[in-house]
Amino acid sequence: MKTLSQIDSLVYELINKETARQEDGIELIASENYVSKAVMEAMGSCLTNKYSEGYVGKRYYGGNEIIDEVEALAIERCKELFGCEHVNVQPLSGSPANAAVFFATIKPGDKVLGLQLDHGGHLSHGHPVNFSGMLYNFTQYQVDRESGIIDMEKVREIALREKPKMILAGFSAYSRNLDWKKFKEIADEIGAITFADIAHIAGLIAGKAIESPIPYFDITSTTTHKTLRGPRGAVIMCKEPFAKAIDRAVFPGMQGGPHDHATAAKAVAFGEALQPEFQVYAKAVIENAQAMAAELMAAGFRIISGGTDNHLMVVDVTSKGISGKEAERILDIAGISTSRSTIPFDSRKPMDPSGVRLGTAAITTRAFDTADSRAVAQAIAQAIENHGDEAKLKSIRESILELCRKRPLYTSIV
Ligand code: DSN
Question: How far is the CA of 172 from the centre of ligand 1 (A)?
Answer without folding.
Answer: 6
